[in-house]
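User: Hi! I have a protein structure encoded as tokens and I'd like to know what sequence might fold into it. I'm fairly new to this, so please keep things simple.
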């Protein structure tokens, strides 16, 4: 029991040290009022009606015990674990993307003991949620889809069952949509769900999206060989399951992994498996391609999304996922090739 407490205390200290170093911008071993103000404001949401500066000054002065206008590490830790300090800033709310990536139940009061326990295994993932100039993959993809839709450039790109030899169509159908509603729904999800994921995992999200698109077209073509396919929905569903993948691989680094797993898990199961079993491919909606995109997004997500702190169990999950994904893709590609050969033989 004593050994466990030592490990936990070491983890707490490491976490607080990392936060302290983020605040200490000039790396002089102290956090000035200006540094604390800049740090807190950079992590707050869009302008609030509550002025931040007086709140920060008030808290700073309370914990600057020797009144030298700078906080050392011990003073800093005492401040950020104080109930009054936490109440002041949690009531102001965090950035939207942090709420989306890691939903936090803010109505429940968290005391100091619970906070320290949480910080031994969490907080690392949230700190990675930062917008970088290179995180524009979802934005560029959405712009291309909008331009191609309104210029009516569709015929060479859409997946057609009688043109399987034009292999680019297995991917390019993601740029085509059948209606404005279809386009708007996909773009909305890409930006609201895909962009926050991209802020943590960068270019990997586009690879997952592409894997979902390819998986969607293969599932559709093999199981419903006489139907065409348009729209980026399989890629959208791959983004949903990529969120599940990042929860699995970063479980100990997230504040509320269970909440996120339940939210994305219930939606994915209902909107892919349940709807496919119930409706098949009815009303011109390809539920099987949604399912294919979701499966590929989950497996590829586990394989390529960032794992902030790898454990032995996560390594095992990684190997299972790569074998499953390889097996599924090899099987469907072989089935697709056999369909093409059969079609050529008939002609």
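Assistant: Happy to help. Inverse folding works backwards from shape to sequence: for each of the 347 positions I chose a residue that suits the local structure. Here it is:
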């Amino acid at each position: 029991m004593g050994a466990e407490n030592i490990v936990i205390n070491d983890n707490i200290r490491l976490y607080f040290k990392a936060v302290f170093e983020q605040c200490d911008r000039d790396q002089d071993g102290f956090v000035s009022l200006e540094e604390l103000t800049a740090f807190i404001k950079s992590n707050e949401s869009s302008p609030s009606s509550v002025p931040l500066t007086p709140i920060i000054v008030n808290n700073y002065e309370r914990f600057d015990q020797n009144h030298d206008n700078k906080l050392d590490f011990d003073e800093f830790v005492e401040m950020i674990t104080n109930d009054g300090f936490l109440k002041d800033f949690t009531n102001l709310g965090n950035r939207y993307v942090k709420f989306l990536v890691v939903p936090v139940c803010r109505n429940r009061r968290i005391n100091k003991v619970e906070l320290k326990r949480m910080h031994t295994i969490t907080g690392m993932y949230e700190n990675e949620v930062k917008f970088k100039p290179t995180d524009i993959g979802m934005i560029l993809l959405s712009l291309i889809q909008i331009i191609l839709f309104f210029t009516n450039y569709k015929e060479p790109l859409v997946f057609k069952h009688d043109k399987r030899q034009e292999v680019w169509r297995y991917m390019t159908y993601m740029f085509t949509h059948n209606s404005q509603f279809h386009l708007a729904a996909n773009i909305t999800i890409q930006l609201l769900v895909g962009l926050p994921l991209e802020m943590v995992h960068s270019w990997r999200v586009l690879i997952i999206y592409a894997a979902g698109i390819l998986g969607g077209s293969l599932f559709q073509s093999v199981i419903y060989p006489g139907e065409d396919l348009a729209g980026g929905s399989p890629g959208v569903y791959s983004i949903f399951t990529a969120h599940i993948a990042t929860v699995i691989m970063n479980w100990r680094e997230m504040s509320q992994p269970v909440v996120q797993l339940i939210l994305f898990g219930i939606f994915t199961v209902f909107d892919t498996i349940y709807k496919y079993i119930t409706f098949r491919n009815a009303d011109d909606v390809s539920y099987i391609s949604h399912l294919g995109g979701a499966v590929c997004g989950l497996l590829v997500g586990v394989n390529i999304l960032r794992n902030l702190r790898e454990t032995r169990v996560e390594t095992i999950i990684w190997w299972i996922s790569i074998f499953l994904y390889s097996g599924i893709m090899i099987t469907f590609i072989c089935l697709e090739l056999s369909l093409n050969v059969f079609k050529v033989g008939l002609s």
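A useful reference point when you look it over: The radius of gyration is 24 Å. Feel free to ask if any position seems puzzling.
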